[in-house]
Amino acid sequence: MPTATRPAAPFEPVRLEDVAREAGVSTATVDRVLNGRAGVRERTAQKVHAAAQRLAYRPDPAAARLARARPWRLVFVLPEGSNSFVALLRAELEALAPWLAERRARAQVVLADEFSPMAAAQAIGALAGEADAVVLMCQDHPLVRHAVEALAAAGTTVVTLVSDVATPARAHFVGIDNVAAGRTAGTLVGRFVVPPRRGKARVGIVLGSRWLRDHAERLFGFQQVIAAEHPHIELVDPLEGRDRSELTEPLVRGLLEREPELAGLYSIGAGNRGIAAALKATQAAGRVVWVCHELTAHARLALLEGTAAAVINQSAAREVRAACRMALAQLTRERLLPDDGRIRIEVFLKDNLP
Amino acid sequence: MPTATRPAAPFEPVRLEDVAREAGVSTATVDRVLNGRAGVRERTAQKVHAAAQRLAYRPDPAAARLARARPWRLVFVLPEGSNSFVALLRAELEALAPWLAERRARAQVVLADEFSPMAAAQAIGALAGEADAVVLMCQDHPLVRHAVEALAAAGTTVVTLVSDVATPARAHFVGIDNVAAGRTAGTLVGRFVVPPRRGKARVGIVLGSRWLRDHAERLFGFQQVIAAEHPHIELVDPLEGRDRSELTEPLVRGLLEREPELAGLYSIGAGNRGIAAALKATQAAGRVVWVCHELTAHARLALLEGTAAAVINQSAAREVRAACRMALAQLTRERLLPDDGRIRIEVFLKDNLP
DNA sequence: TTGAAAGCGCTAACAG
DNA sequence: CTGTTAGCGCTTTCAA
Asked: Which of A5, B53, B261, B277 has the highest CB neighbour number within 10 Å of its CB?
């Protein structure tokens, strides 16, 4: 059997073996180095890295996946409570199981009290060695940041979701620009509210808490646009509803009593069921231009009924998928699609519901 | 133990070999049958199919990809001409090359005259045996439909893009619901146009041609919403601009001369550069509520300048990617993510530009 | 028309 | 610390 000379392919792929030869070591060693497994002399590791670099080596994800025995363990750390949006995230993650399995991965959820950074930090710390990648949705706080850095230092990939934790230790942030989301709401409310004959139209704001970073950012963007571009509108002082319908409902009822002429309402956080109830009970539904966030079942219904004028959304489905893709891509060094990580600020009217 | 009733183990993976054993043939034969390669007796094929079905076999895409020698050949058939949107599609496809290569696939573009179904049908026919999958963007016409059916019968996967071709022979349609897109435009224009003190506000419409299915659908949705929900608006007769700026510009200039009080404008097709120019030249920019489609560079600029109030978009990037994913999933029988094929109707204001 | 067997490029035991 | 080697599940010759 004569040895066939491989015809020079247009894109001669570089394999692990090529790197091994170039570095003068075995493929096992290259594997160890490139995958950060322990037990390689520093000097050897450097040679390997250099060789890989020189040859522009890219691992073949298909081969890696095929050979891999244990599944990748992804852990999602999410806020506990009955928040519809978090429920959506979880449902989507569940639906992803078969897709993940096909990629030798599986995901697990851990809940942590959203308002206790201490609890979150503890939950994160407990994950070292238990997870290959951690996807985190929680408040940015020094304790949390520290836990993330420790986890990353231990070799775990960390991806932040929805609300970023500002440390270079996290590999990616999957979520939207909340200032831009607030500005978008501002433009919608500003243009939907018809300028009154005289005086100004009054518009209310409900948020969960000023201390939640994303809420504060949305508020900022909203106020900015209204002030700069919609002089016919005057904003009422923001109300804090703790993201809970039991609280937002009376809050909005009170607001409507004080402001019978209210022309618009922007709700920044959760608790939309309560707001819809208040608007309907006071006959304000439809008359008040109401814009809110997150296309949950309640919001969808409000849109269809005409209670809500528009819903600004970050797709829970896309976010979960993007987070999984980012985490896996990081773990396998697989190529990412150009903007697979970018989440759009979606605007839904009753007409373009998905 | 002859007939083994396999208890559904947690994740007992079924392999090609299991199917082979169950069917009493070799793995090579199973491969031939399941991948539609020639040279297998009908009776054998049936046994194999039955066995695969019984065991709920799903091929491991990683293994398939690793073993596969030849790349999958995807061919995109797109309308020729200088349309910005088509240019975006092409650019995106180019950017996808490395990603495709990693999946043992590569894509190629063939251009066909959009207004000649005959030419399109010919181009499609020529692809039999040349492509594993064809992604098609062209007018629905009996000739085209016939060509698609012939191609599919020859074993090629066909995916339609942007504008559907109504035949069960195509595996998927990747695109948006254009009636809903038109309705969305209707709601935006209806709410953005301030109701006049007396009389009605007049709103113009520019489309490419009534004979383009997607344009006709958008027009329908738009008229529907305006008529039903925005009685303060009166629509001017639609103008046809053939999707070309040289034609749309004078058309809109003329319109503004005849209708100096024009309050809104909906442009359904391409040629937005011309429309923007006309609006700016006549000082109508910003005063006229202009809503258009497709976030091209021109449209983006118009939004930022305030000439356009909103842009309704179908993401070219997502469409190309979705089309590739659908085609490859079909080819490899790989699992698709729940709604990887669904393209959203995106609404962009100056504030939520990606 | 069918089967046997050699890889695809990587991972992971197991030796050394 | 490093190398050898046996697979992972599929595709693809080559023989029968």
From this structure: B277
Say if B134 falls within a structural domain: yes
Residue at A8 is within a domain: no
Distance from CA of A8 to the nearest CA of B (A): 15
Cβ under 8 Å to B: A residues 291-350: 309, 317, 321, 334-335, 337-339, 342, 344-350
- pTM, to two decimals: 0.86
Q: For A286, which DSSP code?
A: T
Specify the CATH number for the domain of residue B231. 3.40.50.2300
SS3 A219: helix
> Strand ranges (DSSP E) for chain B?
72-79, 105-112, 133-136, 157-161, 172-174, 201-207, 233-235, 239-240, 264-267, 289-293, 310-313, 346-348
Q: Are residues B216 and B261 in the same domain?
A: yes
- Cβ atoms < 10 Å from Cβ of B81: 14
Mean pLDDT of B76-100: 89
Domain count, chain A: 3
Tokens (6 digits) for B221: 């949705």
Cβ pair A191:B195 closer than 8 A: no
A107 and A204 share a domain?
no
Distance (Å, rounded) from C-alpha B213 to C-alpha B204? 20
Q: What is the pLDDT of residues B109-145, one digit of tens each?
A: 999 987 788 999 999 999 988 999 999 998 889 999 9
A309/A185 same-domain check = yes
Domain that holds residue B239: 178-313
